[in-house]
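Q: My collaborator sent me two sequences in one message, no labels, and asked for predicted structures for both. Can we handle them in order? The first one she listed is below.
A: Yes, handling them in the order given. First sequence, followed by its structure tokens:
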Amino acid sequence: MTAPAFTQDAGRRFREMLVGLVFASPLYGAALGGRTARLRGAAPDPWVGEPEAARNLLAGRYVFCGEEILAPNLPPWAPQGVSEAWAAELHGFAWLRDLAADGSPASREAAVRLVGLWLGQYRRWHPLAWRPDVLGRRLLGWLGHAEFLLSGATPEAEALLLDGLARQTRHLARSAAFASPGPPRLTAAIGLVAGTLSLGLSRRALGRGLDLMAREIGQQVLGDGGHASRNPATHLAVLRDLIQARGVLMAAHHEVPEALQNAIDRLAPMLRFFRHGDGRLALFNGSREGVDGLADQTLVLADAPGRALTSARHSGFERLVARRTLVLLDAGVPAPAATFYGMHAGLLAFELSVGRERLIVNGGAPERPSVAWTRAMRATAAHSTLTLADTNAVHLDDAGRLKGAAPMVAAERSEAEGSVWIEAYHEGYRESFGLVHRRRLYLDESGEELRGEDSLIGRPRHPLNFAIRFHLHPQVHASLVQNGAAALFRLPGGSGFRLVVSSGSELRLEESIYLGAGPMRRNEQVVIHGIAEGEETIIKWFLTRIPAAHGSRGRGDRQGEL
């Protein structure tokens, strides 16, 4: 039986306190020394940076996780008021790729100066700067840009960098297994592999890194290639790390473990699964759209040609495609609380895009951590699904961990002559209200009609309000017609859709918030309101494409940012 989450947290904090006392001691710092390390060929960072981000860094603008710190004269290693995620991003040095992408003498000088200043201030253990996942990311950053950092360096500067790399790698050999479970532990393991191979350090430490990486792959990569977090953005990040790990091993002429290659071969098709027509990611379980072109670049480097699945049963997602129309449905069980945090209560939520344009979306997640906004965007109401009695379909704590047992979620799929039919249900409302939510979706072979049916099955103790939400992308314009019996959606390119609902339900146009990409933006949602009573409440709706008006123009993103 798994211990309660608060008990696990208390035990983890106690262990971290004890370990920190050991790591912070002068004796431990002396133990990290050793023979002079030599660079034996490090794999270059495979990811392309952004010159615009480099210009921000040169101007002293440090922008990470939606937060900006201005520090034109000194690096802000420990600024006040920033999130832990911001600080981890800074100390992880992945932003070196932005300076390298700019490639100017000023960028190289800034990179060398910042690394040198960090080594002067953080040569000894620090709880965040030397946290295993942050340290692993930093090793990958420094080693991946070693040529950029050492070009023209003095012997003294080169020796200082190599000593810093060796000390951190030796520490990571002792601490990688203490990293938080999930992606942080995998990053720590990959950093350890990179450090030991690139510097020719202990083969025993290399073995530890490879073993830990293999264990994490086995726990995190599901049978269909999805990531156990069920978060497309986390999925992409893990695939990128594994691609870099493979590059590190190949550069050192080390055999690539079969488990690593198999994981890449399975993760890449599932990344295709989660891409909308614009090339960016679907918004499930805390994901955001991501940087334009990043998923495509990752797929090229993955070199794994497998096609996207239509039904990902291990991950709990369904993909309906007909011509230019794509529907993605979350029909899975929330990830285990003991392993991954950050779950969302969007059971049976779906997204829809047409070509490169998104029509129906989920709310996304805040780029800048905030308890209030994170809680709000995890709610069932922030997703394109049914909400009963203004209550979440699953109970989550503020860390996004499931409270109690995971509800039953299941789906069945059938296809015929290009059309797709999905029937799914979840029991998230059974314990509280005695009701089961069933959702049926049918996409015809032309991709021009999506039929939906949402049912609440069971006899409630008293009438309950429900709301079926269709969150719209900020670039979509919506209006109610036929005295509120239908809604029209207009995409930026001019094409449109009509939503019609069965009689007995009220259709409303309401404001919403979109946190799927960039700053917070206003958007709209069309909501079917009704009352559940009797043994079964059935709501049918039809989303049909209508011809584009002659010479019509989309309104673009007229609503803009908040």
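Q: And the one she listed second?
A: Here it is, processed independently of the first:
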Amino acid sequence: MVNKTIVYTAVALLGGLLLGYMLFGGNSDSHVHEETAIEATDEIWTCSMHPQIRQPEAGSCPICGMDLIKAENGDTALKADQIRMTENALQLADIQTTKVGMEDGANNTLVLSGKIQENEEANTVQVAYFNGRIERLQVNFTGEQIRKGQLLGRIYSPELVSAQQELLTAATLKESQPQLYSAVRNKLKLWKLSDNQIREIESSGKVRENFPVYSTVSGVVTEKLVAEGDYIKQGQPLFRIANLSTVWAIFDAYESQISSLKLRQSLVITTQAIPDKKIQASISFIDPVLNSKTRTVRLRATLNNVNNQFKPGMFVQGLVAMSQEEGAKALTIPASAVLWTGKRSVVYVKPQPGQPIFELREIQLGQHLGDQYEVLEGLTPGEEIVTNGTFTVDAAAQLQGKKSMMNQEGGKTMTGHEGHGNIDHGDVQSATPISDSRMAKIKVQFGHILDAYIMLTDALVASNAKKASAQAKALSLQLEKMDVSIISDREIIDPWSKIYKELVQYTDDIQGTADLLTQRQHFKPLSNLLISGVELIGTDKIYYSVYCPMADNNNGAYWISSKDEVLNPYYGSSMLKCGAVKEKFN
């Protein structure tokens, strides 16, 4: 009995020692494991659609249900106006940067856009010099070339018949009553009958009932104002005739450019109709009044129109060389680097060389110099800025809730519409390269979307609300046909998912209203989204981003054009040419 008690006591003692060791002796080791576990939770997982979501472990987004992705290390150290992009995103978007600085004598040219117009000093109107009825017209269409003295038509005039009879009677009495004869002849001369016509009437002794009318000038018929059988009165216009041996090149200069322009200043004129030829000219007139709607001043140059190479309505470009003193002071950047929103001009700066970090910077621009812009404030020589893919960087900033072109305060993503998407991201894998064939298929589908958008733009240019609504429906159908299931790269599908949702919403908004002003209000964010889409996916065609500083109550607005010209969808014919082409998308 005693032995059993000893055994039980020993076993209990050993068990107590073992338990104590486990509880206290292994304390340091368990502390290490605990610290390791804590360190493992330092990873932050976020949602590419909702960057405000921050989770300590992988999972699904509580808002949209998408798989969370690991946040980039170091993002917490970024400023409110800075973003970090992955190397994969930089390559996909073809982001290119350039150091700020201007080479001596380079891009030292002021570029003006203009149009060929008729020389108003050479325009004339062929009028009727007596009452009558047009019996026959020899000139029957606009654009016909006529020469001085050419027969234009025949007119029956009772007054002229009577005047001819008076002439024949006075001719028989010219020896006895020379003053009467002279008065009758002068009356016919006032009706623009020539001496030869008067002598012909006298010699024939007959009255002409249908009297011929001859052109008093040479030129091109720009407007035909009468037809056969019309009754006309003395002084009534018959034809408008333009002499196109000389034409005017009319240019619009912005307020910031006026100080660099002077009378008799030389400029070089080019046009797409004659791409290999440069015409030397000089400024012959500068309008003393500023156009308050477009904030521009008109200036012109007179051109000799050899072989009618210049046609009225033709677009031209004027290049004005600046002085070396003006150019030497200019700090310039490529036009493709600048984003405009209202009175603000912004660029993206790369503050840390070698790091994929970009910082939004507001700058003040000066004159337009060739394909460059003069920078007055905001940049210093040697700083590195984004010159290609600027819209893509800005779209990334919007997706991350950072400050961007359209969101000065940050904290919001894209434009604010929620929902309206039908894309399933459950099987998306991160950073899986897309094959060339699949990318080509995506571009074709996206091209159909852009084609429908261009048709919508044309409807707004024509100020046709009913047609704009129909074209918005066509755009909506093309969006539905976009097959994004073949996309497996999160660098593309994540931002496109957000863009897609917003596109559907704004397309529905335009489609659902017949008010032209409301359609144009929705057209602005729709255009911004598609510009981001072009930067993200690319195109097989050439498009242009165009900017109007006066749209949206002087806040400014962009749109996409298939042509390198300004046809303003925000104003239509009221200010059709307000704006400028800012960037070319290849």
